[in-house]
């Protein structure tokens, strides 16, 4: 895991991302870290689709994100997908969120989590806003 603390960006390999998701469980619409020695029902498993419900924004080849809807929500405009994602990223990072960039994939994969959620899940850069 590589972290750029000045930009609150975390780079993970696809294998690290999968391991991170496997280290989580969802109960009552809340994500938490699994505890060693505990058993968790299969319905509490976290995959990319479950994680997408907790992300502030995402750019993913696996999970369909609403890039233009998110841009509209933050009252920004852009002329391309790339510019839209950059504006979304800038908006959320300036508000204490954390960008997770998954490397080594054919398509770009980036997830933005709130700083509070990132901190609770043990991610670097999850400082209070």
What does this structure look like?
The protein has helices spanning 14-22, 48-52, 67-73, 81-93, 115-120; strands at 2-4, 9-13, 24-27, 30-33, 57-59, 98-103, 109-113. With 129 residues, it is an alpha+beta fold. It has one domain (9-121). A five-stranded mixed sheet has the order 1-2-6-7-5. A two-stranded antiparallel ribbon has the order 3-4. α3 crosses α4. The longest helix is centred in the last third of the chain and has 13 residues, at 81-93. The radius of gyration is 15 Å and the shape is globular. The two termini are 22 Å apart. The model has no long low-confidence stretch (mean pLDDT 91).
Summarize the structure.
With about 130 residues, the chain is an alpha+beta fold.
Topology:
Elements: E1 2-4, E2 9-13, H1 14-22, E3 24-27, E4 30-33, H2 48-52, E5 57-59, H3 67-73, H4 81-93, E6 98-103, E7 109-113, H5 115-120
Parallel strand pairs: 2-6
Antiparallel strand pairs: 1-2, 3-4, 5-7, 6-7
């Amino acid at each position: 895991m590589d972290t750029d603390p000045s930009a609150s960006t975390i780079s993970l390999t696809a294998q690290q991302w999968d391991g991170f998701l496997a280290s989580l469980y969802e109960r009552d619409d809340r994500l938490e870290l699994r505890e060693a020695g505990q058993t968790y029902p299969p319905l509490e498993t976290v995959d990319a689709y479950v994680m997408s419900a907790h992300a502030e924004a995402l750019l993913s080849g696996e999970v369909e994100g609403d890039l233009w809807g998110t841009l509209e929500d933050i009252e920004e405009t852009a002329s391309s997908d790339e510019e839209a994602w950059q504006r979304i990223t800038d908006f959320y990072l300036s508000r204490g969120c954390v960008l997770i960039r998954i490397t080594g994939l054919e398509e770009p994969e980036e997830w933005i989590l709130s700083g509070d959620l990132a901190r609770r899940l043990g991610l670097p850069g999850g400082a209070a806003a």
